[in-house]
Amino acid sequence: MAHEPRLTAAEKARVTVLVARMCKRNIAGDAVDLSDLQRKVDRILDGARAREEKAAKQRP
Question: What pTM does this model have?
């Protein structure tokens, strides 16, 4: 499992909204495509990882 970064409040809110949309789509049926929302969540997590790495490099 990859390292899960700490999320800011805004990132948590965005992920929460996306997960809620995924749940709503999943209720519609198993044939519904969720990949677009999963990619958005992955992008948010990638951005958070990059932010943490940048902050770690700036620390002495």
Answer: 0.85
